[in-house]
Amino acid sequence: MMNMDISVTPNYSYIFDFENDFIHQRTRKWMVENWTWVFYYCGIYMLVIFGGQHFMQNRPRFQLRGPLIIWNTMLAMFSIMGAFRTAPELIHVLRHYGLFHSVCVPSYIEQDRVCGFWTWLFVLSKLPELGDTIFIVLRKQPLIFLHWYHHITVLIYSWFSYTEYTSSARWFIVMNYCVHSVMYSYYALKAARFNPPRFIAMIITSLQLTQMIVGCAINVWANGFLKTHGRQSCNISQTNINLSIAMYFSYFVLFARFFYKTYLSPAGKKSRRMAASLAAQNTAKLSSPSSDESKPLMADISSNGTTLNGSAANGASAFLHKPKLQ
């Protein structure tokens, strides 16, 4: 039998054994003892991606279509499962206990083994997600600042926050799982040469912008609750709030700039028209007897959404993840 406080947990229709066996004290102890290793991981990451770019400079790009499909599909499935296992807890708490509890009480880890388990996996997943950038480097696609900055800051913040059981993180985790569910599913479809409507890409970036706005709002509420009720009632430190709001605000600025340059600026609109025109030409050439003539054109149009000016990058950087705590 589970040892959970039913009053603060939703009525899960099914609980897996690995969820029921989750013991949050053990994971917190491990993270408290090891979280600073994240700085070494980030240092290695920076060396690999920028060293990799230098290594690939005069070498042909790798296609990696098969591995990219598998990678994005796995991350999409993981995010979908995470969203289904964490969102019910947030909804339940909001309905029965209100905003204060959702921001200030870490029952999602301490009293809910299902949500606690998927919170632990979420935090750990930020390390392998760095692999997104490897595909960009090996496929010689544009590596913009937002992409790698977002990856390393989310990783560091996630691991640090877990040591404190930051109560407001339940919001960040649910939002990130939900956005990543859509984002990685889109990437997988593009890598598999399906062509979802282009407005889907715009919707995903809009969702990420919304995520940043909500993240800032949650931190403002957390700051108010902390000042009003104190640390004993609101389990979040002032340091964490300051770091989180700085992080989310910087993401908002960078994502807003990316959104404007990609979808609203004259250059972005022109590049999308060029990509659409070349795609139409490519389709026509594929239907012609001389299929070899289409190969150079196909190389110019990445199957996962790269525009010619690089403003919308590959299946790991067009929308940049996200957040998430993200």
UniProtKB/TrEMBL annotation:
Keyword flag Plastid: no
Keywords on record: Fatty acid biosynthesis, Fatty acid metabolism, Lipid biosynthesis, Lipid metabolism, Membrane, Transferase, Transmembrane, Transmembrane helix
UniProt main location, coarse: membrane
Stretch list, region Disordered: 285-314
PROSITE patterns in alphabetical order: ELO
PANTHER family per UniProt: ELONGATION OF VERY LONG CHAIN FATTY ACIDS PROTEIN 6, FATTY ACID ACYL TRANSFERASE-RELATED
Family classification: Belongs to the ELO family.
GO BP annotations listed: fatty acid elongation, monounsaturated fatty acid; fatty acid elongation, polyunsaturated fatty acid; fatty acid elongation, saturated fatty acid; sphingolipid biosynthetic process; very long-chain fatty acid biosynthetic process
Domain of life: Eukaryota
GO MF term set: fatty acid elongase activity
Catalytic activity entry: a very-long-chain acyl-CoA + malonyl-CoA + H(+) = a very-long-chain 3-oxoacyl-CoA + CO2 + CoA
Keyword Transmembrane helix: yes
Transmembrane segments: 38-56, 68-87, 145-162, 168-187, 199-221, 241-260
Name of this protein: Elongation of very long chain fatty acids protein
Gene from which this protein is expressed: ELOVL6_1
Entry's EC annotation: 2.3.1.199
Compartment(s) where it occurs, according to its Swiss-Prot or TrEMBL record: Membrane
Cellular component aspect of the GO annotation: endoplasmic reticulum membrane
Membrane topology value: Multi-pass membrane protein
Compositional bias per record (Polar residues), positions renumbered to this chain: 301-314
